[in-house]
Design a protein that fits this description.
Blueprint (H helix, E strand, L loop, with lengths): L6 E3 L16 H13 L4 E4 L2 H14 L6 E5 L21 H9 L4 E7 L4 H16 L3 E7 L3 H5 L7 E7 L8 H9 L3 E5 L5 H7 L3 H13 L6 E4 L4 H12 L5 H12 L1
Parallel strand pairs: 1-8, 2-3, 3-4, 4-5, 5-6, 6-7, 7-8
Helix pairs in contact: 1-2, 1-9, 2-3, 8-9
The protein binds NADP nicotinamide-adenine-dinucleotide phosphate.
The site of NADP nicotinamide-adenine-dinucleotide phosphate (NAP) has 28 residues, from helix 7, helix 8, strand 8 and helix 9.
InterPro entries: AKR2_Oxidoreductase, NAD(P)_OxRdtase_dom_sf, NADP_OxRdtase_dom
Protein name: NADP-dependent oxidoreductase domain-containing protein
């Protein structure tokens, strides 16, 4: 069987907000997810509740739930704000069943706790998510938007086996977090290799070439286990896979990237 790709599909692929490109139609979303699964991209993120609902429908239509590794964060539907992207809410006992229903599944492969600085509350979330692991509703637990301090505050026994943070050539600060996480046996999952889609326009170079250079900068980093990218077009799945397959940047590409960073 082929090895799982380092590339993961971002949840913002399923929503209109946060992107330049228009909303991908349901048919396009099905094509994107099918292309990912066909090409060993198993890790699929869902951040906002709207993304969970969308992915649930797509995987049901495709009949391929078992091939995907679903990641899900604690951003929930709020009464009167169903059409907005609302902030995260620390986990409470009722949340897991809501998430499973939205995703139309029995278990979440990687449940993400959005990190924050209320240590007592975070400890409660760790206990709760551990309970969900024991109940078979969650396979693994991760800390998202984590900083080094959050890792240092983890109790001796905890369920966290991965950390997630934005990590790209413009914002490489998560490197130390990833080094520490890896030294503790955790996976390091990088988010947003392009910052956002608009950053590629701002660079002003050929967009495909700029995307490939920024993605390769992250994907070739041995510390990174996965890099999660939103892709609202099926053709980008193939472009991004090709880029990841090309490996580290050449000297000329690295010089080009430095020029963009220095602006
Ligand atoms: N950044 C965070 O704070 C954060 C937090 C929680 C979770 N995440 C997760 O991380 C994922 C990725 O983050 P992100 O969407 O913020 O940033 P990103 O993946 O760096 O940027 C995605 C955008 O890049 C463009 N794109 C993708 N492939 C391309 C290609 N081959 N050529 C040209 N343009 C391409 C698209 O832009 P347009 O569609 O805009 O044109 C796409 O929306 C999210 O979907 C989410 O699952 C991020």
């Amino acid at each position: 069987m082929s090895k799982e790709s380092k590339l993961g599909l971002g949840g913002h692929s399923f929503i209109e907000e946060l992107g330049n490109d228009p909303h991908a139609s349901f048919e396009e979303q099905c094509a994107i997810v099918a292309d990912c699964l066909d090409n060993c991209i198993a890790l699929i993120d869902t951040t906002y509740y709207q993304e969970r609902v969308a992915l649930g429908h797509v995987l049901k239509r495709l009949g391929r739930r078992d091939e995907a590794k679903i990641m899900a964060w604690n951003f929930f539907k709020q009464p009167g704000r169903e059409h907005e992207l609302v902030d995260y809410t620390p986990y409470e006992p009722q949340h897991i069943d809501l998430m499973l229903e939205e995703l139309q599944t029995d278990a979440i492969d990687l449940l993400v706790i959005h990190a924050h600085d209320d240590t007592a509350k975070l400890l409660k979330e760790l206990v709760l998510t551990q309970d969900w692991v024991q109940a078979g509703k969650v396979k693994r637990v991760a800390l998202g938007m984590a900083r080094l301090g959050h890792l240092r505050q983890l109790p001796a026994a905890h369920p966290v086996s991965a950390v997630l943070a934005p990590y790209n050539a413009f914002h490489p600060d998560a490197k130390e977090l990833f080094e520490t996480a890896r030294s503790l046996g955790m996976d390091a999952i990088a988010l947003s290799p392009f910052v956002r889609g608009w950053k590629l326009d701002e660079i002003g170079a050929d967009k495909d070439a700029a995307a490939a250079i920024l993605l390769r900068w992250v994907a070739a980093e041995p510390l990174v286990d996965h890099v999660v990218v939103s892709m609202r077009k099926a053709e980008w799945v193939h472009a991004n896979l090709r880029a990841v397959g090309e490996g580290p940047l050449t000297e000329a590409e690295d010089a080009q990237l430095r020029e963009w960073l220095a602006r």
